[in-house]
Amino acid sequence: MASGVIFHPCFLLSYYLIGLLVTAHNVPQAQLIPYHGQHLMKASIGTPPVDIYGVADTGSNLVWTQCVPCDDCFNQTYPKFDPQKSCTYSEISCHSEKCHEWDPVHCSAQNSCNYVSGYITGGSQGVLAKEKATITSTSGQAVTFDIAFGCSYNSNLHYDGHETGIIGLGSGPLSFVSQIGSKRFSYCLLPFGTESTDPNITSKISFGNGSEVVGDGVVSTPFIDRESGHEYFVTLEGISVGDTYVPFNSSGTVSKGNMLIDSGSPALSLPPDFYDRVEVEVKKQISLDPIKNDTLLGTRLCYRTEITNENGPILTVHFEGADVELKPIQTFNRPIKRFEYYCFGITNIASTYNEFSDGTGVYGNYVQANFLIGYDLETRIISFKPTDCTKL
């Protein structure tokens, strides 16, 4: 270093991170951590980097994390991001094009771009800002991107621990996928409750070239745009319970895009009539008496004996052009750990907080477990490959 030349620590950190991005010829990849029915994607933001654990959510399009000061926020285990301690943080001007890639936003008196993001069980409000976001890669090296994200000062979602926010993985302009320039990504989710049996097991989400889902056993279905335009809607034609086919509609006709693939929602939620017909057939094929008149369980279909491949049916989900086979480990779970209750993980959408009123269902993360699932934004297909996600 030349005598008398002083390099700012922020410059050195930024130079170091950019160097890794340029020289790392590998697949960007992040850790997925199962937690209370969600899957948290580990990343870091800022300079120096601060770890965040956002819910990996294909059903939304904004990256945000709770920030200091947080006026009205959910409790989180990890420290909140403090923008004043990052030398690469900058707020986005309300007059910039980037600000208006999100709706709704409004200008503050200081010309900040204030965002509002709503979800089924709550929402987040704060300021849109620019920052460095860092994840790992297949070589173990860090890879850094410039992204716009929400610095949240008001969050009322029902989170209570390891979550720090949400990492939107939709196809909108401010989603993580779009902002890092990725045309494809894939992930493998661990079965519900894995963290209770082995808290050290994690899985992966990969981005860009090298994240394709290929090989034996892969099936694919197209996704379409709907009015929102930035989520992944596929067409579900019916479900087979064992060898018995149950159509989505009694009439046999279905609307295109009648099912949202949503990694941020736990259950597979079906319209009431379809759910009732599937549940009737499931009961027929399990030679056990379901639990009745339990106020804790309500109307849920539950048993006192664990449902396994030996005593429970295989369900085949018939998407357009793709049959996805679900074993009992994906369709039954133990929702209350202190009780030996084993409950059907598919739900009636009328009993959830789901926002759809037109008969659209939600393909949640319970039934996505133990599949390598790939999203290709160029060919507009979603692929499924049966995989033991605990061994990736």
Automatic annotation (TrEMBL):
Pfam families: TAXi_C (PF14541), TAXi_N (PF14543). One of its GO terms (molecular function) is aspartic-type endopeptidase activity. The keyword Hydrolase applies. It comes from the Eukaryota. PROSITE patterns: PEPTIDASE_A1. GO terms for cellular component: extracellular region. Residues 1-24 form the signal peptide. Keywords: Aspartyl protease, Glycoprotein, Hydrolase, Protease, Signal. Residues 39-385 form the Peptidase A1 domain. Belongs to the peptidase A1 family. CDD domains: pepsin_A_like_plant. One of its GO terms (biological process) is proteolysis. This is Peptidase A1 domain-containing protein.
